[in-house]
Design a protein that fits this description.
One of its GO terms (molecular function) is tRNA binding. InterPro entries: Pept_tRNA_hydro, Pept_tRNA_hydro_CS, Pept_tRNA_hydro_sf. It catalyses: an N-acyl-L-alpha-aminoacyl-tRNA + H2O = an N-acyl-L-amino acid + a tRNA + H(+). Its main location: cytoplasm. The structure is a single chain. The protein has one domain: Peptidyl-tRNA hydrolase (Rossmann fold, 3-Layer(aba) Sandwich), CATH 3.40.50.1470. Helix 1 packs across helix 5 and helix 2 (74-84) crosses helix 3. The protein starts with a strand and ends in a 5-residue tail after the last helix. The protein has a seven-stranded mixed sheet, sandwiched between helices. The model has no long low-confidence stretch (mean pLDDT 93). By secondary structure, the chain is an alpha/beta fold. The longest helix has 24 residues, at 157-180. Helices cover 36% and strands 21% of the residues.
Length: 194
Amino acid sequence: MDTWLVVGLGNPGPAYAGNRHNVGAMVVDELASRHRLGSFKTHRSRARVVEGRFRVPGPKVVLAVPLTYMNVSGGPVAGLLSYFGVPLERLVVVHDELDIDAGLVRLKVGGGEGGHNGLRSISQSVGSKDYHRVRVGIGRPPGRQDPADYVLRDFGKQERAELPFLLDEAADAVEALIDVGLLDAQQRFHAPRP
């Protein structure tokens, strides 16, 4: 079975743990907990990593969160791809997305980085933009708030109440992408809600 690498983006340390920018890391933590994969270990690629399977039989999955700051995530991701022998087409990056309404999850392969420094770093380090992305909508900042400031703030009270549902949906999207492929996963998660 082929190995998949699922990377959740965020910034390291407790000061950032509840930030909107860390929702990718939160999704990876949810997947590890959901599948009882055990504790993350520090890997030499400057990431915390846990390995396992979502179901048996099924492919091996490496879940990872870089221990570097968001804007230099590429080095750890390139190192993990090399170490585990994972080809680019089985890399899944889970990240926050300003251009998607809060609470929605979208999937795609390739495309631009939309000003997301973590994605830009990964694309530069792996030499391609053609990897899977699970985009977790956080919406645009209210009023004239600077987007950079907005993503580095914790989720608001109402958002925190809905966050478990968003993390659950994004974790489901990662599983579907690996289990049934991009097109079927997109049909499921991009369908209009009732």
